[in-house]
Structures are given as structure tokens and as C-alpha cells.
Amino acid sequence: MANFKKKILPLKLFSCVMKHLLVIVLWGLLSCCTPGNGSLLSAQDYDFGCHLHYLASDSLQGRLAGSRYDSLAAVYIRSTLLHCGYAPLCENGWQQFEYNAIKRSTNKQGTRFSRNVVMVRTPYDTSASAESIVLGAHFDHLGLGGWSSYRSDTVAVHNGADDNASGVAMLLELAKKITQYPAPLKRNVVIVAFGAEELGLLGSNYFVKNLPPHTGKIVLMINFDMVGRLDTLRRLEIGGLKSFAGADSLLHAIPNPDSLTFFFPPKVKENSDHAPFYAAGIPILFFHTGLHADYHTPDDDIDKINIPGMHAIAHFADSLIRWAVTTEEPPVFQQTGFARKSQ
Ligand SMILES: [Zn+2]
């Protein structure tokens, strides 16, 4: 069965790339000949498979932060957003940062570089009073393993289909959906794909401390990390319920046509890229379908991703985002503190 996967993957990748090219060409044609914001495409549902097949393929070698494969993933994310009509919010859409890490080939400590991809929906408000929401997901993973793998004695591609190709696929497809919202919106939509999350939330920490000009006041950050394993009970964890006033009633009022079963942790966990935002006094929500036996192992593969489950999550997230960009009164931050590690 392993050989089957190796043989079939290039074919899938090829058809995925061709499909992507076709969509880009069609998108260009439609945007040339339709007024407004591409409403002819509104009948399209989400296409998670294409992003997952590329990001979680062996060809990206587990997207280790600082590697050329990490850069390939970043290029893919940026070009997908560009083709959806997003613009770079900082220089060319890249926000490079440096950090110290041990280089695997030499086993020596040295300076490494990774980057965030930072894009904004156009048109956007550049005034001093501009507000924004940030949607984020990290794109790096563990490469061939290493200290944070649960099979640290094994050298094998850790594809990270759930962690976090699923979150990036969700981010890109929601970003595409947002281009169809009727303009004008009350606040900017900033899309950030974070680098080096697996090394300790490096990209998101850097972003929060080095906000690009025209980011505006961030009134809500929504993070997607591991959203590809919705189980048979349809359990979706949403963190940050107490990070702003009224979140509880809001999340219960949003339509839930796909019968998701929500779990709201009582306190914010420091386990993903929403944490630096929350520490900086920004309301957050964190979407997550939970840990599993394949977490941080080479078995976190695309064949275990629940694509219909991702559709269900996207339907709910889309309603939430529509509320966030249209509500008169933005969320007001509440400080309740981080959860202890055991919570
Ligand atoms: Zn991880």
C-alpha cells in the first residue's frame, strides 16, 4: 500500500496543479467580464483537497521551518491569495524573521530564517481609525521528524496533513469566500499564514510585535490549527469563549446547519498561534478538531482527513466571519488568563 501511495501521488499532484491553473485562468476571465466581486463563482463550494494534496505531499518533505520546502509552501499560499484578489500587506506579502536553531546537517546552532505570509482583502481601509480581523493558520511542520516528533527515533516525512495543512486549506478557502462578501465591509480582513509555529509560535509572536503598517486595530483573531479530523461525534473545539464579552451567546446564535458538537474550553490555551494575540489583549477564537494518535508522527496523512467535516467547519466559520466584518460594535477583550498546561 505504501508503494501505491508513492505512485499515485504525482498523478494527483499533477491533476491538482492543472486544476489550479484552470481555476486561475477562469477566475481571470470571469473577473474581466463580470461586474462586482465575482459573484458568478459563488456557487462554488470549498476545494480543500487541492491545497491538502500539495501541502501534505511528500514533495514538500514535511515543511520544516527554515527549509526550502517551507518556502515553497509560503510561495504557494501567497500566490493563491494573490489570485483570489488579496494584496500584500507588507513588502511583497512576506514578513521575514530570524531565529536560532540547530542545523540538522551540521548539528550546530546557527541563525535561521522563516517568514509569515501577510495579505489583505482589497479594497482596504488605510486610515488611522481602520479596524481589522486577522485569520491565521501555520504552514510549517516537522520535516523529517526531530525532537517534537512522537517517533523521534525515526527519520521519515512528517506530512502534517492535519497539522496544519488542514488549517491552511481552511484559511485559503475561507479567504476566497470572503472576496464574495458584498462591499464595503466594516473592517479589513488580514490573512496571515504563520511560519515556525512548531518551534514555539515564532511567526505569530513576531507578527504581533511587528505589525505591518495599515494592519489597523485588530478586533478579533481567528486561528485554525488542526481542523481536519472531525470525528463521528462531530466535535469541534473552539477556544477563546471568554476572550471577549458576548462570545458565548454569539457562538450559540450562529446557525449550525451541519450539527457540529461544540466544546468550549474554559480558558485560553497557549498551544498555537492565537496565544500571542491573546497575550497582547486581542479577542481570539481558536478552531481545532483535537489531538489524535497520529499527531506529530509520519502517519498524519491526507487519507485520514475528513473533508466533509472541513466543509461543515467552514460553513460555521464563514457565518462567524461575516458577523465579525459587519457588526457595528466590535468584540471587547476580556482578560481571564491562560489555562494551566494540564487544563
Ligand atoms: Zn504541530
How does this structure look, described?
With 343 residues, this protein is an alpha/beta fold. It has one domain: Zn peptidases (Aminopeptidase, 3-Layer(aba) Sandwich), CATH 3.40.630.10. The chain contains 8 helices and 9 strands. It has helices at 2-33, 48-55, 68-84, 161-178, 202-209, 247-253, 274-279, 307-326; strands at 86-88, 94-103, 108-121, 131-138, 188-194, 217-224, 235-239, 261-263, 284-288. Strands 1, 2, 3, 4, 5, 6, 7, 8 and 9 form a 9-stranded mixed β-sheet that branches. Zinc ion (ZN) binds at residues 163, 198, 296.
Q: Assign an overall shape.
A: globular
Mean pLDDT comes to: 87
CATH level 1 class label:
Alpha Beta
Helix percentage range: 25-40%
Spell out the helices and strands N to C.
Answer: HHHEEEEHEHEEHEHEH
Ions and ligands: zinc ion
CATH topology: Aminopeptidase
Beta-strand content estimate:
15-25%
Question: CATH-wise, what's the superfamily?
Answer: Zn peptidases
Question: Which consecutive residue ranges, at least 5 long each, have pLDDT under 50?
Answer: 1-15, 17-44
* CATH architecture verdict: 3-Layer(aba) Sandwich
Distance between the termini: 39 Å
Number of strands: 9
The domain tally reads 1
Number of helical segments with 4 or more residues:
8
Largest sheet: 9 strands, mixed
CA gyration radius, whole angstroms: 19 Å
- What structural class is derived from the secondary structure elements? alpha/beta
